[in-house]
Design goal:
Helices cover 36% and strands 14% of the residues. The chain has 595 residues and is of the alpha/beta class. α7 runs parallel beside α10 and α9 packs parallel to α12. The longest helix has 34 residues.
């Protein structure tokens, strides 16, 4: 492996050397920052009560996109982000942990980037850029699938969906370890690390190593924050204690009001109340206290990320590179609503947590050793005023903040209400760098074409729309589906949270998706349904197996990939059976004695 690592690095360096350095003397550095599971209204520029001065400063200098859409979960977004190719054509239509065996047999459903696509990191590296990545990958865990072999010159990567933020250990039974790598090889994290700080430390280190050679750099920083387990140093949590004592519904309403005042969403819009949102007033005092602190930890984690973004910006100013850098900030999907540790279904998870040194104690909530989720009720506030959240195709799962600022951006804090899509980012980044988009062939091999549109005309103020109103853009993930056309969207979400029915919304005037227009606009609905069927056919979108359950698939994934999980689960089942048989025996004895 060491030989191939050296060989590939040498090839990359040679390719870069072929490029006329003077052609890129004025090329901007590009910093792509991706938060994990950050809701639409979680930052100050989008209506949040959470102070995020670094993100706010970028928004004040650049362009805030109010209608930007990613995928509903992390891996599909990341695949489209880096290739500009639809998730069903690049090999990552779902997170690998959730792909059922019936679909995994197909080449475009492997859950890892295929060899039929080229990443923007590869293209930029070959055009003379240094390319760095520090953060979450989730596009393949096999050696040849890691980011070091997909165009990044230096990498520190978390290969799977996440890990603990304070310790080098997994956060789910699905993984037997925390899969951290440096330049494709196993990495031992330093003592006392915290992911937001550590990832920026390494990003600064990578830039610093080569800054004397005058070449531009592409730095991709996909943070693990604010993905669960939600964790933050105590001082960050304490900043936010008391902010969430009124609960999630009041928070959702307050954020809507601020977003309207900022012009992020139109005045007078409605928003739905999701069936998964609990009644705050019906909780006990202890339950309200616990949930309020959980959200304070979440806010603190976001602030820790923001502080480290500020540190990276300060470093670039110090070395004189800030003015020649473009910053792109966004999130991979909407807020996470999963509840793993509550109820009867969480019994095994709680046992696994105890075995792996996790607790849910109020006193140390969010600190080292704590396992915390904010749950569906606070997730609904994090995406305010949108409907649903991560995994779903309603806009709470897909619409996220996006800010672009820096060199060549005519910003000054203005908003763009244009519909934009995750596949637009790859051609935008190449356009900013002055590099051509491959036309279906790259260095002698056939590759999938990028389907997105460069957003540079929006960034320079030369255009107000990115896409022709007649253009249809389809989407599907695990049976949840949508199609966008102009200002309209058809959408379907599977049960039990969704209703398995198609709906039609004007997602510009009604971002909360409250008024179904299917009956009022039957011709548009029918035409968009036809367009969606074309999308399914053209992109080899597979139907979901009957009875598909994402949680069950993750459990089977754990059985296949983590021998410890299989052993522990089998042991737990055996123990339950033994206790049941013992109970039956004791019950029989008691009956005989009673006679």
């Amino acid at each position: 492996m060491a030989f191939w690592r050296l060989f590939l690095c040498s090839v990359g360096c040679c390719l870069g050397a072929w490029v006329d350095a003077s052609a890129h003397a004025d090329a901007p550095n590009i910093v792509l920052i991706l938060a994990d599971d950050l809701g639409y209204s979680d930052t100050e520029p989008y209506g949040s009560e959470i102070e995020t001065p670094a993100i706010s400063a970028l928004a004040a200098e650049g362009v805030k996109f109010t209608n930007h859409h990613m995928a509903g979960s992390c891996a599909p977004t990341r695949g489209m982000l880096l290739t500009g190719v639809d998730s069903h054509r690049n090999g990552v239509p779902n997170i690998p942990e959730s792909i059922p065996p019936e679909q995994a047999e197909h080449a475009n459903y492997r859950g890892a980037l295929g060899d039929n696509v080229v990443t923007i990191a590869t293209i930029l590296r070959d055009a003379g850029y240094h390319t760095y990545m520090t953060g979450k990958w989730h596009l393949g865990n096999e050696p040849e699938q890691r980011p070091f072999y997909r165009g990044f010159e230096r990498t520190v990567s978390m290969a799977v969906s996440g890990a603990d933020h304070f310790e080098q250990k997994p956060y789910l039974p699905a993984y037997k370890e925390a899969y951290w790598y440096e330049d494709g090889e196993n990495l031992t994290l330093p003592e006392g690390f915290y992911t937001p700080k550590y990832l920026v430390d390494r990003a600064i280190e990578f830039v610093d190593e080569n800054r004397a050679d005058g070449k531009p750099f592409f730095s991709y920083i996909p943070f693990l924050a604010v993905h669960f387990p939600v964790q933050a140093p105590r001082e960050y949590t304490e900043r936010n204690i008391g902010k969430y004592d009124e609960g999630w519904t009041k928070l959702r309403e307050a954020r809507l009001a601020r977003a309207q005042a900022l012009g992020i969403v139109p005045e007078g819009i409605d928003m739905v109340t999701m069936s998964t949102t609990e009644d705050w007033d019906a909780l006990s005092d202890d339950e309200r206290k616990y949930n309020a602190k959980a959200m304070a930890v979440y806010a603190g984690m976001l602030q820790a990320m923001d502080d480290n973004i500020a540190r990276f910006v300060a470093y670039l100013k110090e070395i004189g590179e800030y003015e020649n850098t473009v910053f792109i900030f966004s999130s991979d999907n909407g807020a996470e609503s999963t509840r793993l540790v509550s109820g009867a279904r969480g019994l095994y998870m709680r046992g696994w947590m105890a075995f792996n040194g996790y607790n849910t104690d109020y006193a140390t909530l969010g600190e080292k050793g704590s396992f915390l989720e904010i749950g569906p009720s606070f997730a609904s506030a994090a995406v305010s005023p949108l409907a649903y959240y991560k995994f779903f195709a309603h806009d709470g799962g897909l619409r996220v903040p996006m800010i672009v600022a820096g060199a060549g951006v005519a910003g000054d804090g203005r908003r763009s209400n244009a519909f934009t899509h995750v596949t637009d980012l790859a051609p935008t980044i190449l356009d900013l760098a002055g590099v051509d988009v491959p036309d279906g062939n790259y260095q002698g091999r056939t590759v999938e074409r990028m389907i997105g549109t460069s957003l540079v005309p929006l960034l320079t103020g030369e255009a107000e729309r990115a896409h022709d109103p007649a253009q249809a853009i389809g989407y599907e993930l695990a049976g949840n589906a949508a199609l966008f056309q102009g200002d309209y969207k058809i959408v379907k979400d599977r049960g039990p949270v969704g209703d398995d029915e198609w709906h039609l919304f004007n997602f510009v005037s009604d971002p909360g998706e409250t008024a179904d227009l299917k009956e009022k606009m039957p011709e548009r609905f029918s035409a968009m349904m036809d367009a969606y069927r074309d999308y399914v056919r053209d992109n080899d979108v597979l139907p979901m197996p009957k009875g598909y359950d994402q949680r069950r698939e993750v459990i089977w994934y754990a059985f296949r990939n983590n021998p410890n999980y299989a052993v522990l689960t089998t042991a737990a089942v055996v123990l339950v059976l033994l206790f049941y048989l013992l109970w039956l025996g004791l019950r029989g004895i008691a009956r005989r004695v009673g006679r």
